[in-house]
Design a protein that fits this description.
The protein has 402 residues and is of the alpha+beta class. A 4-stranded mixed beta sheet has the order 1-4-5-8. It has a 4-stranded antiparallel beta sheet with strand order 2-3-7-6, with no helix packed on it. A hairpin with an 8-residue loop joins strand 6 and strand 7.
């Protein structure tokens, strides 16, 4: 859908465009274009986040009282759309998007003063310690223990698929503090202030896409002050559910879907696969493009409503699960079309066309480099942050009363 922008919104759009033009250097734009995973290269992401922080634009979903922009839903959408068009790097934003709102809602005044300014400045970078081997979609079965020892918890266990744990300097973590009663009743939410804490070890996991985004983290008698607990002991499940609403639906991401779809259209117009004609001329392929665009527009309606609710201080609620399902399915369908459009140029690390005796591809090398990694990386999109099956169970219970 096209936003009906007011005069103030149009002025804001011009302000954003000017800022992006003045601050996005060629290397930052290149990092944005060559993003083959969920986030841009960490160094570029950090640099761009610092630039945004300097302008006061690093926490677009936060209220002004906590250092955020206080923007309306329309302003956030405009910023996301213009940033995507300008090839701005996608910022690693677990601190702003997930743990920040949790600290605002459940944290003590001391915790808010300790963490929120550093998150806004880009100095505090959190990773997420949720999933474990055997405890992914069934997160309540987690076994990493935190035993009480005076003013500290002593943590033992392991977390897996921990995105950018090798770059982050903090972690928010779910740990088991009790084995009595229901599994959900014995979980506590804690913050770890230093990824170099004695006993904490980060081991890389290289994905099928060839990147290093995720890790396994091991805890061997890691001591964490109880002052770092968010909310009461054994009430971490309530805190986690609040956080997951933001993880699944707290940002405007349809602009990125539109951008990916435009890329696929352009590739299909320009690329002739093995001399067999341009894919854009194939009726079946154009029908797939149209179906994807309709799906994005439908998702955009939900997204704008969620952004509007957030602007009014409301939680996304169960509707964020619907966004997660549709968003992850759409991105996978677009990635598949991208591979189809690129044909053999979509295969990573393949010799150049000149070396194998073909004409040079007319698509830009950037897309040939990122198409297959995006496809492979996003196969996990229907699993991480709660699998599609889990999301449907949430919708069935919360919205249908089943």
């Amino acid at each position: 859908m096209d936003l009906a922008l007011s005069a103030d919104d149009l002025a804001f759009q011009d302000e954003v465009r000017t800022f992006l033009k003045d601050n996005l250097t060629p290397d930052l734009r290149e990092a944005g274009r060559k993003t083959g995973g969920v986030f841009a290269d960490f160094a570029a992401s950090t640099r761009w986040n610092k630039i945004l922080a300097g302008r006061g634009w690093s926490a677009t979903t936060w209220p002004k009282e906590h250092g955020g922009t206080g923007w309306s839903a329309t302003q956030r959408y405009i910023f996301a759309r213009e940033s995507t068009i300008a090839d701005a790097p996608r910022v690693f934003n677990m601190s702003v998007r997930m743990v920040g709102p949790v600290v605002m809602k459940f944290g003590t005044p001391e915790q808010k003063a300790k963490y929120l300014p550093g998150i806004v400045a880009g100095d505090i970078v959190f990773c997420q310690g949720y999933s474990e081997p055997g405890s992914g979609s069934d997160l309540a079965s987690l076994r990493t223990r935190a035993d009480s020892d005076g003013d500290d918890y002593v943590i033992n266990g392991t977390k897996i698929w921990t995105t950018f744990a090798h770059n982050a300097n903090h972690m928010f973590c779910l740990v088991r503090t009790s084995s009595e009663g229901k599994q959900q009743d014995g979980i506590t939410f804690v913050l770890i202030d230093d990824m170099n804490t004695p006993g904490l070890t980060v081991k890389p996991i290289l994905t099928l896409a060839g990147d290093h985004e995720v890790n396994q983290v091991f805890f061997d008698d890691v001591r964490v002050p109880k002052a770092n607990r968010i909310g009461p002991e054994n009430a971490g499940w309530t805190v986690a559910k609040h956080l997951l609403e933001y993880e699944r639906g707290g940002d405007a991401y349809t602009p990125n879907l539109y951008a990916r779809l435009d890329d696929v259209r352009r590739i299909a117009r320009e690329e002739a696969a093995d001399g067999g004609g341009r894919l854009i001329e194939d009726p079946g392929f154009t029908e797939r493009l149209a179906e994807a665009e309709i799906s994005i527009k439908a998702l955009e309606m939900i997204e704008l409503q969620v952004l509007s609710d957030l602007s009014q201080g409301k939680n996304p609620g169960a509707i964020s699960s619907a966004m997660k399902i549709r968003g992850s399915e759409i991105v996978q369908s677009i990635d598949l079309m991208g591979i189809d459009a690129l044909a053999h140029y979509g295969v990573p690390f393949e010799p150049t066309a000149r070396e194998v005796g073909h004409n040079e591809p007319t698509v830009t090398p950037d897309h040939a480099i990122t198409a297959m990694p995006l496809y492979l990386n996003n196969r996990a999109a229907t699993i991480y942050a709660g699998s599609s099956e889990v999301q449907r169970n949430i919708l069935a219970k919360a919205m249908l009363g089943l």
